[in-house]
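Box S1 | Example of a co-folding query
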Amino acid sequence: PFVYLNGEFLPPGRASVSVFDRGFVFGDGVYEVIPVFGGRLFRLAHHLARLERSLAAIRLENPLTAGEWETVFSRLVRENGDGDQSVYLQVTRGVAPRDHAFPAGVKPTVFAYAQPLKYPPAAAVAEGVAAVTAADIRWLRCDIKAIALLANALLRQQAIDRGAAEAILIRDGLVTEGAASNIFVVNRGTLVTPPNGPFILPGVTRDLVLELAHANGVPAREEPLPESALYTAEEIWMTSSTREILSITRLNDRPVGTGRPGPLHAKLFALYKAYKQAFCEG
Ligand code: PLP
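Box S1 (continued) | Returned holo structure for pyridoxal-5'-phosphate
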């Protein structure tokens, strides 16, 4: 397998970055993860649009055009034998003597690779997974897909240490999102997810779920979600590019609803899989 680094395709062992890269020293960069189904980049335009937003938010110019990104990803995917994969890309501000101020005239470091997609285990899909609630200790620009993920890593580990798959984050009494996912609840048959804003990442999977709900007459709302709504929810789901739509059937060691994945999850997951199938065949 090859990785892409600054214009070259290299074996991973030969790809290296300076210890003075601002990504390494400051976490000064942004990233994307793009799922690949049947060798094709799923919702590529959405991921590139979000990348553009993230880059603009940290005042970096996009180093590649959309066409150039696609060429890089396609080659990585092909070299990896197509099938279902995930493409990771990151852009950092580049290499410069350590100083908080932006360096002048420095080229960004551009890195990308593809790996086989690790789907959640079949039992997790069929039975749902456990989650715990945790205080959202992150910064105030969670809408930027920043590589600095220390808080997210601490929160995810906190969940793992309690035997759960995800932490559902609470800020000022409201649900924001998961450590690496967006959150939906079903409340009296209606799908509810927090609105986009500075405290959540605008998830590509989240948007697709909303799109599919609207197109198929499933009532869905984007509105602030109090923590208390988690404890009365009929269903809770997490969404992400690599975990797709996963039921959360236990929260803080108590069952959610019936304790089994619910009927609305079955419906939206079927719609999602049909959409994905059509994409693969299209
Ligand atoms: N929120 C956070 C903090 C994430 O890291 C992710 C992705 O891993 C998501 C939400 C889901 O976004 P997407 O559906 O675009 O993968």
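The longest helix spans residues 263-281. The mean pLDDT is 97.
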